[in-house]
Amino acid sequence: MPNRWKPNVTVAAIIERDGRFLLVEEDTADGLKLNNPAGHLDPGESPIEACVREVLEETAHDFTPAALVGVYLNRFTRTRTGDDITYLRFAFAGTVGTHHEWRALDEGIVRTVWMTLDELHASAGRHRSPLVLQSIQDYLAGQRAPLALIHTDASVTGPG
User: Which domains does the chain have, with CATH numbers?
Assistant: First the structure.
């Protein structure tokens, strides 16, 4: 089967504290954008492990996923290259833990910011993807699924 379509698998964290959501401001080809702490699934890890890692790398906070908020499909065209990319995103809700102040944030991450829902709506033009707000709205609507829905076979993490 030539040219099999392979979406990019990503993970994102929905982290709420006192009515505010933890976001990252990141430097992109299209300027500074706001995003959930998020990133790509790496070889040998489960979506849950990827989310824990990405939150730590992008925010310097520990993260404990508690539920799957949703699985999202999004298509994006890169401004500079015109590349047509599709992302399959797993969004997790959970709790933020220890902040490791000594940790440098991932390359491209300028800072972390806690935002209210009103601030999120007001800044929608700066969101990296429409999934930033969509996943938070789904979270606020009470959308949750157990983490047990996501099964990672031992062949993924075991010896090749």
Answer: 8-148 (3.90.79.10)
